[in-house]
Design a protein that fits this description.
Elements: H1 5-8, H2 12-17, E1 19-23, E2 29-36, E3 47-51, E4 58-63, H3 68-80, E5 85-89, H4 95-106
Antiparallel strand pairs: 1-2, 2-5, 3-4, 3-5
Length: about 110
């Protein structure tokens, strides 16, 4: 994580703590941005994992789709199921890549 420090300046500790890596069942790693479940930005076309921040367990893995109401509804349902964090992967550039990432990440549990 030290590599991120120069680019964030004085906000480095907070910014760096927002990033994590997940490993899928294939062994591939996925860089994610971490947000409180009720403060996740309205992303479009991203892979989203709803995580129980205490246990680290995945509650839901899916696609943000067109964001908005649909994403908020999915995150609210995940929160009711125990999720406290949204982990967002933005590097899957198209729908097939997002579906592959979801399958890889969801197969962990």
């Amino acid at each position: 994580m030290r590599d991120f420090l120069p680019m964030f300046g004085n906000d480095a500790p907070q910014a760096v703590s927002r990033f994590r890596r997940w490993q899928g069942i294939s062994g591939k790693t996925y860089l994610v941005s971490v947000y409180p479940i009720d403060d996740c930005p309205d992303y479009v076309d991203a892979v989203v994992m709803a995580i129980d921040g205490t246990s680290g367990a995945s509650v839901w893995v899916g696609e943000a789709g067109s964001g908005g109401h649909g994403l908020r509804t999915m995150l609210q349902a995940a929160a009711l199921a125990g999720a406290t964090e949204a982990h967002v992967h933005l590097l899957a550039g198209d729908r097939p890549a997002r579906r592959a990432a979801i399958k890889d990440l969801d197969g962990r549990h």
